[in-house]
Each structure stands twice: as structure tokens, then as C-alpha cells.
Predict the 3D structure of the following.
Amino acid sequence: MKKLLLSTIVMSFFCAGAFAQDIPLVYDVENTAAANPDPVFPTFSELPKCEPLTDPFAFSDGSGRATSFSQWSKRRGEIKREIEHYEIGDKPAVSLDDIEASMDGNKLTVVVTVNGKSLTLTSTINYPAGGTAPYPLMIGASNNSLPGSLLSSRNIATMNFTESQVNGYSQMGGSGSRGTYPFDNLYPDLIDNGAYSEWAWGFSRLLDGLQKLGPEVTKIDMNHIGVTGCSYAGKMALFCGAFDERVALTIAQEPGGGGAAAWRVTRVHNRDYKKEDSWEGLDNTDYHWFMESLRNTFGEDKTFYLPYDHHELAAMCCPRALLMLGNPDYKWLADGSGYVSMEGARKVWEQYGIQDRCGYSIVAGHGHCSLPSSQYPEVEAFLDRFLLGLDVNTDGVTYASNYQAGGDRATPLEDLDQWMGWWGVTDTPPALPDNRPVPVRFWSYAEDMASSAVTDWVIEEDAASPSGKCARAAVTNTTAPTDKSQALAYTFNVTQQQNYYLYAYVNCAASSNDAFWICVDDGDPLKSNGNKTTGGYAWQGLYAKLAAADKSKYKLNLAPGEHTVYIYVKEPDAKVALICVSNTDALSDFKTEVADIDLSNISTGIRTINFEQLYDDNATWYDLSGRKLFEKPANKGIYIVNGKKVVIK
């Protein structure tokens, strides 16, 4: 293998073809755009909505796109300042004149003095047993989770950045509070900062110390500095590498949400794919790490107003090298979002003909922060090329088989074109395809479900019920009933095969009257126990209160056609006012969907949907006069769909 040629003055270079001539691998300054003016920071009300990933090339003022590499430093500087302004807080610049550095054996000490106040950083450099100084260096953000043998066998020196010397926020919230840490002593005006800006600041001060002392003292080659970390420290490594252009290689290991994963993609997943475990996103991350204003301003669907996203955080590493390592076995890590985001980020390296400097490897089958041998080759290749300067092929490191087409975790969410296909094509970002299932609800009042033969249930007046009546359990059935004439029965017509769930608006004042037997069609009655309410009527998901063994039997994947749901008495005095069969599988989501529906206006056999929602395309619509309609009615009212009344509200 041959060494790459290195510039001894300013930066190192590698030519990856005609489009990559003279594009540096690393710089000797923290921020090449430091002298640029700040972009304009619009208020939330001034920001345009952008559902897909934001265009990383588009200048903040709308003046064009950074399609040539000579324009990238300016654009990268804009992204840096936007992330600081809206997400993590300012990372203050520090002059090397304000840095004092010294070595005591292999211990590095850096003293930073700002406004007459000082902060001290220390770290021990572990030099390799072989090789020749100056050595390449891998810095662990908090710690290095990569196998040590991958570094020691390559004669790569190591050291750790101890983030608590700057800021004590930990993954679990840490001790103390904002404003009480060493960083805050230097910058009292920045106490609202998130930890990642402050950690990136402290990391850069270590590089200041190494740079100021020089390789003759430190034995470290400043052209070959790497940073790595895992989990919350994987985010830290990404922020440190993205925000300091003296880092030649960033390896972000399992960084999760708030790291390489895009806030937008995670938001859509958590909103539209609720059967999946939740991913770490803007609404549910640790806000010791970020400014509280990020969540307050851009929570939920307001995420789509962020003027950037984390594919642009990752792209800030360009033209330097970035490798993201993922682990889809831990769904919290949001690696489906990380895959989409890294594909978006790689477009920047691709634009400048250097896509072989950016890769990702999202591989299952191993513990969190435990690199499996199957990921060694890509890590070794990036170490060899970007820390050792060897002529190694790093092109095509794009592994995410679980999320790529045909993967076992792939959904329409991971279709890439919807996220970035608009870049450079139009100035108006398109709306994302809506992958949310259209809510379907079949309603009936309990009194309308009781036949004349029912004696187990008593229909009685109840002013607290939406209809003014309820069905009250009059007996006790300790074993599953078999007489369907004693059940509350509701027949409904399904037009589309999918999963359905049974909800009931019940008043169960005590644990002695909060159980029912439920079944659908010819299924065996199953016990739904624990439906106690507090202070009157409330929605309960009867299917969710089944025993664990029974839940596996309650698979209401109903085929098109007529079906009947049965509710039998189990404990006396339980009251049922209204039932609903719905395709919504979580009680919290169901309650949100029906919050604005006037329950007293629901009649037996009438299906109520919100006016904005479309019925399935094959429906035939009639108004009550029998006039056939060929599209969704434009007016509110009652209509007939496949023989069933529908209320458009």
C-alpha cells in the first residue's frame, strides 16, 4: 500500500477523479467559515414548511445552491449557525492566544481563559507500542467503544475527551442544572445551551492544545485526527467532528435520534407507524442535551418548519470522512431514520465527486455499543485510509439491509425519493405522501345492541350517557356465556380487510364491576378485565384488557362483509353507553381521533368520519334522496356508502 501525499502547510489532499481535484481531506482551522456573516434567522412564524428533507445545498437567503465545492464552505457555515441558533446554542470561538497547553509525560493539560476566568481540561494520550511519531490519534467522545485492537494494531494513539470537565449533563439527566457547570462559569450568557454545543466546544479546546504544542511535543499528527463515541456519545462524536474541521475522520457509533437520524423522518415514523416501537426523536429525547426551545418551538408536526435537519449536521463533515455505525435491533436508535438521513447527507459528498469519504453500516445481531466482527471491514478501511493515509477503497459502504428495499423493517417511510427527490428540481418542497391509515369507526349505542330477549343487561335511563340511556349488567357470569341472545350484539359491514379493535364508553366505578366477556362472530368469549373508570364514563379498549394468552386469539383481521361483535356480562352493575369498532389500535390515539365528535349525535348503524377524511376509493356514495355521488361529498350531512349511513361532520 502507498501513502497519500500530504501538504505540510495547510491541508491534506486526495484526488478521487476529475471532480475531486484538490479537495482537502482535512483543514488546520476549526471553522473555515468563521469570518462569514451570520445568515438571517427567521422566527418560527416566518419559516416555510418543508415536509421532506431540506435541501442541504440551498443557501439560506435563497440566492442559489452550493453545487460547486468552492461554495461549500459558505453553505456549511450557514448550517452550523442554524443548528446552533435553533437547536444546541452557540459554540463560542476561542483564540489560540487564550489557550495555554502543556504536556507532563503523556498527560495533556489545556487551560482556556475567557473574560478573566479559566477552565482546565486534561487527558492522557495512550501512545502505540510500535510505529513512528507523529502518530495518528483517535479521540473517544467520553469513551472509545471501538475494539482497542483495531487501533493498537495500526499504531494509532488514543485519548478520551472527558465531557464532565465542561458540562455534567449525562444520558439520564445528570446532577445539578443548567448554569452550574464549568462552561457556564466562562459563558454565563449561554446557560440555555444544550450539552452538545458545550461538549463540541470543549473537544475543540483539546485540539487547540495539541495544535499549539505541535507534533514535536505531543507526538501527534494533526492531519490525522479522528473522533468516535457510542450512543449519547455517538451523538457527541458527530457534533464534535461536524463542528471542527481539524477532524479528519468521524465514526459515530449507534448515535440514535439527535445524532445522524433526521428529526423529520423520525417524526413521521412515530406519528404514522404506531405499531412500531417509538424512535428517539425531537419530542422524546433528553433535553439536557439540546436547548429546551427546540422542543417548545418545533415539537410534533412543527418539526417540518426546521430550516435544516440532521442530514445536514452529518454533511457538515464534508469533505472530511464520516462513517455512521447503526444497530437496528435497538429500535430506539431510530436507524430507519438514520439510513434516510445518511443517504441525504451522502448527496453532498456525491455532488463533489468524493462519496467514498462518507459511509454507513447499519447491521443487526449484536449488543448496543458492541461492534460485531461483521462491521470490522468498513471500520478498518476508514481507519486505514483516513487516519493512516493508505490507498484503500472506501467506496460503496452503504449497508442497511433491514431498511433498504425488501428489508424486514422497510416501510414506505424509507423510500428515498420522497425525501430528497425535489432537491434542485423545484424551489417548492412537495408534501410527503400520507401513509397514515384512514380511521374507520363503526358505532352503536348500547341500548340499540340489546334484543328483546336480553335479560343479563338492563336498559335504563342515565343522564351521564351521551344518549341518555345505558346498558347495565344485571347478573354475574363467572364462566364464559354461550347464549348469544344474552349479549349486546352489533352487526357492521367491513369494506376493507384490516385489523379492527373494540372500544367501549363505559362507567365502571369499582374493580368488582369492570369486567366483560367479548367476542366477534363465532369466536369464543374472552375475558376483558380491569376496565375501571374514575368519575363517570370513559373510553376503554376492551381488547387491550384481555389476558396475555387471550390477546393472541383476539386477531380481528376482518375480511370484507358482515361481522358481529358481542359483549356479555361478567360482573354486575358495569355500565356500557356506546361501543366503537375501529382500526385504530391504541386507546390514546383513538381518544384523540374522537375528541371532537359529538357522541350524542351518533345513531346505530351510522359511521362518522371527519369531513377531511376520504372513504376508500371503491365506495359508492348516495345522498338520502337516492342521488348517486361520484366523489366525496363537499357538504356535511348524512350519506349512504355501500348500504350504510355515513355522517360527514
